[in-house]
Hints:
The structure holds 2 protein chains of 2 kinds.
Chain A: H1 8-36, E1 40-42, E2 46-48, H2 54-59, H3 62-95, H4 101-109, H5 116-127, H6 132-150, H7 168-193, H8 196-204, H9 209-220, H10 222-237, H11 241-246, H12 254-262, H13 268-299
Antiparallel strand pairs in A: 1-2
Helix pairs in contact in A: 1-13, 3-7, 3-10, 7-10, 8-9, 10-13, 12-13
Chain B: E1 8-17, E2 20-30, E3 35-39, H1 46-54, E4 61-66, E5 69-70, E6 81-84, H2 96-106, H3 111-124, H4 140-152, E7 158-162, H5 170-187, E8 190-195, H6 198-204, E9 207-212, E10 215-220, H7 222-227, H8 232-237, E11 242-252, E12 255-260, E13 264-268, E14 279-284, E15 290-292, H9 296-301, E16 312-323, E17 327-334, E18 339-345, E19 360-365, E20 371-373
Parallel strand pairs in B: 3-8, 3-9, 6-7, 7-8
Antiparallel strand pairs in B: 1-2, 1-4, 4-5, 9-10, 11-12, 11-14, 12-13, 14-20, 15-19, 16-17, 16-19, 17-18
Helix pairs in contact in B: 2-3, 2-4, 3-4
Amino acid sequence: MESWKNHKALFAAVATAPLTWLILFFLLPLGIVWLYSFGTNQGLTQIDISGTFANYARALEPLYLGILWKSVLVAGATTIICLVVGFPVALAIVFASDKWKPWLLLGIMLPFWTNLLIRTYALMAVLRTEGYANQTIGWLHDKFGGLMTLGGLPPPGAYEPMHLLYNNFAVIFGLVYVHLPFMVLPLYAALDKLDKSLIEASLDLGAGHLRTLLMIVAPLAAPGIISGIIITFVPALGAYLTPDLLGGPDSQMIANVIERQFKRANDWPFGAALSFILMYATFIAIAFQAMKARQAEARQ
Amino acid sequence: MEDKQPIISIRNVSKRFGQVAAVDNVSLNIMPGEFFVLLGPSGCGKTTLLRMIAGFEIPTEGQILIDGQDMAKVPPNKRPVNMVFQSYAVFPHMSVADNVGYGLKIAGVGKAERESRVAEALELVKLDGFGTRKPNQLSGGQRQRVALARSLVMRPKVLLLDEPLSALDAKLRAQMQFELADLQDHVGITFITVTHDQDEALSMAGRIAVMNKGDIAQLATPSDLYEFPANRFVADFVGSVNLFEGRLTLDEPDRAAVDCPGLGKVYLNHGVTGPHGADVWVAIRPEKIYLHVPGAGKAIRGAAEDAPEGHNFARGQIKGMSYLGDITLYDIRLESGAMLRVSRPNLSRRDQEDFTWDDRVSMHWRADSAVVLLN
């Protein structure tokens, strides 16, 4: 392969525009926000970069620590559910016939092309008290009740719609719905690379499908599982729209608090500090993954 | 062998993928303790047949019995057979000992017995002391031994080997051919090997089934397969051969003659039992043809023709030579213009200098050397 070093002018021509964009509109603003996190509010619009750690100290107060911990729990639950649901889905796509594979992958990626806001409102239509979920269950309830009356049993009474919206359940449900593709795609990539004869060898040696999955497939797909966990957990931890729209009064996550600092509370330094705590956590997670990946590579 | 029950009985088995029949109505009995080889070009259905025995493919039609038991509803993990995969399929995240002990662990064999059986199996394949290594620390040949040990440790009734030597280099392959045959002799397990390599098949097998387009073209011992091929496909696929089209003009119990436009009249000292005047093919192996300088035969033997009594005879000119060390191959253009390949052993150091390009030569072969093929 030709090295870019032999075509420096061409490389510079191609790289300059995106590099400039990245620096001006991403790294620079990020750097400013990072500096804000060491600043103090002076009046309404003035921020004095004083180098203080007070914002970080405040972020570690029990109130915010509690919300951060809750965000971790919600994102963790989301990740685990995504893994449990996504693993069989990824496995099914890997073993689907070549004719079906592209369509199934398209089905996984289709939600990506729909606006998050629209998807979330659609979910609200499903989950609200008079929503499709409650309507369907209510309809089944009535039919079942009719059957019971026919069988000479007392009717079960009127259906009480479940409260599916504006609580933690709705938040996790919504986050799983939004983040499932992030889990399925890296799992699919890892499982697709797996030598199928390893699975056949395990079956041949007497292992059932579940044992093969646990002892052969899962360990060998570990890098993909770790990737999936990280790229599901990180955005779920920073989720803003989903808890805002689907959650109840006690469902706010750390991103909602951050939003409030930048808007209503007008405390940019504190918001910046909270943002960067998430950022640091992400960096640590990615570094951990890179380390694991290198270990796995060394093993092969 | 007839009074024993076959360990594997394949009855009218077909496997179709869509419209394509990979295996087409094959019936086959394999006896206990046999070293059986399925030989054929790629795409002939040999691997599909092996995978059906292992349970990884379900026959579209027909029945497979292992030790008298119908395998139709038995999944791969419940069959008394084990397979050595072409890629070896050694588990990369497990040590050699864990790989070999995997099946025993699944079967619930206790730790002490497991360890002793693993050690025994590793010793069998000459890998003692390699137990703690990881597969990535092994060579291709060693990995293959791990795969072999991993299957043998299960003490299967039948061991299935899918192109077991194809990933090894030529020297190692030749060595492993002997070792596999030796091992099979030692453990007494029935081996069924799939290969596209005729040398491998001839050197290891007790019996060979040559497959072509999903069907068995011939089932025979290695020497029968080579010396008495049943059809043109087998003659051509196993070893190299000169094939000439001709017409059967004489067919009596003790002699026959075929008139070949390319080769002239070929006489045989046995009957063919084909329809008189039928279109047939004459097959002669290159090593069965004697090559000499014109007139030399007459000088030595004093025979009327330039060949020993009862031999077939032809003349030609050397158009191609390839020196292979132990033998030299000559491509000779006959008077008819057809080409004939002759191989000549280099019995002494300067034998290859006897002939060179454009030399006119005489050839002869025994009356029982050629094979007449009806299809």
